[in-house]
Design brief:
Strand content: under 5%
Largest sheet: 3 strands, mixed
Strand order of the largest sheet: 1-3-2
Distance between the termini: 21 Å
Radius of gyration: 24 Å
Structural class: mainly alpha
Helix content: 55-70%
């Protein structure tokens, strides 16, 4: 079975918090000055003997390579940037400052999130929709980050003593699949049976309590309301309202025990009370996802009813969601009307400005769209959604020079951004500069963790008939570097 199939199945089926007990070994102590006990047992980091941080990084990159090309993964940069900002804020509040994280969103309305090897954390759109506050969403992410920093999954995989990254990666992915579908896992495994994998999946309550305790301290350190965790427990207990066919995915294979609820409630009661308002970005992202999922006519009716009956604490969020739904329906006059209301009645926000420009693009009003992107970028000069939109605007008008200049000015802020390199590749193609086009496309593939295609593009750049001596020297050196990386991966 192809790795892509395994990963996609994992994304669609694995449950939130499901890596809590992948090992019978506990994590290193998580200590923090506070008025309640957060100590964890220290049984030593056995995973380090066969499962190094470099191994985890390679496995994480292998997973992200599949994630980057999956149709099941949300590519909306506003949603991605919000989740990464929230996730990185929480990660920075943990005790492990060395662990790197990658966050992504799966387009699935089930209430779900999951951690994978290498600090990769996926969140379903259904989790955004089910969270009643930003602190609730943060509590789930904090819990998942706790699983990673306590190295629960790494320890389980390390216990199998596979001595190559390839075997470890395959085993780790199959473990995740086995949680959702043991029969699928049997086709995924090459070094262990599905039965053997399933035997490693018995949960322990202690690991869940570890992740809860660590997660509570993370969200507290990050400035969120710790009461978001027990509040989300209540949301999960009433999850049938959000998920057809019974309880949320999270609870079907990972029951929420009374003991766990009581443990979190007791700890929260000992922590300082803190009211934390939701950020505008959380509210707008949630409204955007709601508008983009399900029947558009139904979504429009819901937003309109909420506005009409004042069923909202923030009317601007309902107007924003309604505008997105109208744009999705291609009802551009109505969408433009809602954007006008937002600009008049709500605080300025980059997401509103981006929506405004997108409406003009949809109306084929290139001049007005360009003016709106330019004006918005003066207020929000580093906003990726606006930069992407403005760059695409230039490409649509065949204004390659402007697109290149825009990207070059901002690329240093986002050195790992594949999209900027793809813009450059298209712009250089318009200019018939093939060496630079292949070079840029190669760098885009590299940032998508696709080393094979990156090398192919760099080889084409080397063979290109245009370009000067300096440019050829650069691509030749880069090709050798990528080939060296490929050789190291094969050795691993």
């Amino acid at each position: 079975m192809k790795l892509k199939t395994i990963v996609i199945a994992t994304l669609l089926a694995t449950n939130c918090l499901q890596v809590a007990a992948e090992s019978s070994l506990s994590g290193n102590p998580y200590s923090k000055s506070t008025n309640f006990d957060t100590s964890l047992p220290d049984l030593g980091d056995v995973s380090q003997t066969v499962f190094t941080p470099l191994d985890e990084q390679r496995i994480g990159e292998q997973i992200m390579r599949e994630v980057s090309v999956s149709d099941e993964v949300v590519q909306d940069v506003e949603v991605i940037d919000y989740l990464n900002a929230l996730g990185n804020k929480l990660a920075a509040a943990s005790t492990d400052k060395q662990q790197k994280f990658n966050f992504f969103v799966v387009n699935d309305t089930s209430i779900n999130a999951f951690a994978m090897p290498g600090g990769v954390i996926g969140v379903h759109t259904g989790l955004f929709l089910a969270a009643n506050s930003e602190s609730e969403l943060a509590s789930v992410l904090g819990h998942e980050i706790g699983h990673v920093t306590q190295r629960h999954l790494a320890r389980m995989v390390a216990a199998q003593k596979y001595d190559t990254v390839k075997n470890i990666a395959g085993f780790a992915l199959a473990l995740l699949v086995a949680r959702a579908n043991p029969e699928l896992a049997s086709g995924a495994m090459t070094t262990a049976s599905a039965v053997g994998v399933q035997n490693q999946l018995d949960y322990t309550r202690e690991h869940e309590r570890e992740a809860d305790r660590v997660g509570l301290q993370i969200i507290s350190n990050a400035g969120f309301d710790v009461r978001g965790m027990p509040a989300f427990f209540k949301t999960l207990q009433h999850g049938s309202r959000f998920s057809e066919g019974g309880a949320p995915s999270l609870l079907r294979t990972h029951p929420l025990t009374g003991e766990r609820i009581a443990d979190v409630a007791n700890r929260v009661e000992q922590m300082p009370y803190r009211q934390v308002p939701d950020s505008a970005e959380f509210q707008y992202v949630k409204a955007k996802l709601q508008a983009q999922n399900g029947a558009v006519e139904t979504n429009i009716a819901v937003f309109e009813q909420n506005i009409r009956e004042r069923r909202t604490a923030n009317e601007a969020v309902e107007h924003y969601g309604l505008a997105v739904a109208y744009l999705r329906k291609n009802a551009l006059t109505q969408a433009e009307k809602e954007v006008a209301w937002l600009k008049k009645n709500s605080p300025p926000n980059a997401m509103i400005e981006n929506l405004s420009a997108r409406v003009q693009v949809a109306k084929n009003n290139a001049q007005q769209a360009g003016l709106q992107y330019a004006a918005a970028l003066k207020i929000y000069p580093d906003n990726r959604a606006l930069l992407y939109g403005y760059a695409d605007h230039f490409l649509a008008l065949k204004q390659a020079d402007n697109a290149i200049q825009l990207v070059k000015e901002k690329q240093r802020l986002y050195p790992k951004d594949a999209q900027f390199y793809e813009v450059l590749a298209k712009a250089y193609t318009i200019q018939n500069k093939m060496l630079l086009s292949h070079q840029a496309q190669g760098e885009a593939y590299f940032r998508k963790y696709d080393l094979k295609r990156a090398i192919e593009q760099m080889e084409l750049a080397v063979k290109a008939k245009d370009g000067d001596f300096y440019q050829h020297s650069i691509v030749e050196a880069r090709l050798k570097e990528l080939q060296r990386m490929q050789g190291e991966d094969k050795k691993g």
